[in-house]
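Chain entry —
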Amino acid sequence: MAIEPVTELKGGGALRLPRARVVPLSAPPATYTAAVERYLTGAGIAKSSARIYRISLTTWGWMLVGESAPTGPDRRGAKPPLFPIAAIDDPVLPEVLAELAAARADEMDADTVNRELSIARKAIGWWQRQGWITCDPTIGIERRPAPPDRTKALAENQIAALWRLDVSLREKTLWKMLYESAARAEEILCLNVEDLHPGDKRGRTLAKGGATEWIHWQSGAAQLLPRLIAGRSRGPLFLTDRKAPAGTATLDVCPETGRARLSYRRAEEIFEGNTRLLANPLASPEDIEDLDGWTLHRLRHSALTHDAEGGTSTPMLLARSRHASVRSLERYARPGVDAVAAHVAARDPAARRKR
């Protein structure tokens, strides 16, 4: 960082305060897309988180050029705009960006909007420290209030209904592993066949923050895994149905089948689509396309909540969730609807007299 020389002000002896000037640590990338990749590798973003970061920053790429980000089916296959990273310093951008962000916030849930904003600010701060840009055009955008959703934990009968769905072996195995391990979807999807220890019902994965952790599953997933692996000895555990497109990272391509690693976005779409009727049991089939299903995160949330309801100790919940603080467990350690209903029923005076 260089400091401009201090000069005297006209008409007096007061000195002008020095103004810091950031000297770029390296040559800035040619495009915003390249800057995103430099950030994901240079800032040490864990592989399990990189997919979510890349999706969020791609969404911001549309808005940083004054366009609305595509949503729904239009998002798949849409090519993000190409523009220089220096365009972020455009003085008119903050006002335009605030309007686009507000419009997007009206269409998306608060948790998604806040997560995308947080990711964008982390990346912008990193680019500023590299000296590639000087401004933060998101500075006037506020986080949206996100009241806690007390219904995120699925009831036991909902979990049972999920297992009865007629879906592919891949989906059955993925969903079982997510629920039985209480792992994050990113952690499960980044598993490779060589990371598994089937006899111990566990696998080694990259957790949030880049740490290498063990995840453990139960008999349900253990019985499905051999059929899913089908003799493969290495490469991504969960694969797409088609050959990997040209340019796919080598680590995300199965060397034995040529198929690509299943992405978080696609896995989420499949789960959401298959659970719409379960999430909206009173809806008619013709209305189901306009309704939302469940998110993959609800399997993790449900598993930890059910553990807490069953009396699992706090240290074990911390180990299962791989959270660093007890406070982070508060969202999971709240009894679910079935547990509360059973508690109320057990204390019903009329019910006790009837027995």
Observations:
- The chain is about 45% helix and 5% strand.
- Residues 110-130 form the longest helix (21 residues).
- The chain has a mean pLDDT of 84.
